[in-house]
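TL;DR need structure tokens for one chain.
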Amino acid sequence: MALSLASSAVAADGACLRGINLAGAEFGTLPGKYGESHLYPSDRTITYFAEKGFNTVRLPFLWERLQPKLLQPFAKEEAGLLVETVRKMRVLGLKVVLDPHNYARYNGKLIGSAAVPVAAFEDFWKRLAEQFGEDPGVMFGLMNEPHDMSAADWLKAANAAIASIRRVSGQNLILVPGTAWTGAHSWFDDWYGGANAATMLSVKDPANYVAFEFHQYFDEDFSGKKDSCSRAAEAIASVAKLSAWLRQNGRQGFMGEFGVTREPACIDAAAEMTAAIDRDRDVWLGWAYWAAGDFWPEDEALNIQPTKKGDRPQLAGLRAALDRPLDPAACRFLQK
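>> reply
TL;DR here they are.
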């Protein structure tokens, strides 16, 4: 499945995945009550983003709610909500990235610890693969933002989960983050004993169908928690550096999170980020904006959930990317 290696200064066509994170199911303290503490996206929200031109949803949820006891079956109600939500998205033609939004933890304990052995992570993904493995339009995001664990320890857990998935299904794309919150800007830095750029090249997939997932924000500490885009230039520059690394190593990337405030300069930064990804669509499968969802408060800075008055201002920064024709070569990787 060779991809087009064309990369021009201005992208006439865009990368394949134009995504939105629809948050809500990962909200609230555990266990919580559905509809009060947490919520899957409503039909209206799903339809809105499909009609705006998004073709992918990254769908966060909590591992503990789906599987209240490690190595045991999924909770029927929560599993039913997840399955039904994915079904609704797929009916509209949306691809779905399943996103256990747990930071490589279960009830606060790291994967690989005595409380959460790697075998439990394998079991979790085996059960998810059994549920969704027949639909290649569902992608498996192994974990949201592992952090405060070494790249080597995370690699061990990731490879174990990948092997577990592949014993069930070989047709779902697996998105693999790094440690250190999988930051694009820090991919080459040694945070916890080994940089992602070196360590994560040892990801092993029997089906050879993985891509790396990166996250990138534009504020002063790249966390996305400050209402600014003061380091937008550095954030956007990280795309080109990663593109060179991806090409050199024959890999693919996906920008699973980025987001901006409603300030005009920040909206411009979102447009520049998507343009940078689209320019290098030979190695980037696409992007997903953070975030929207029915439970976000209206004053959440990065929120693009529509209001009663209509679209949020940030949507203008994504409009050009949403309107670009899909590059068939960029999408071929997803048609395995």
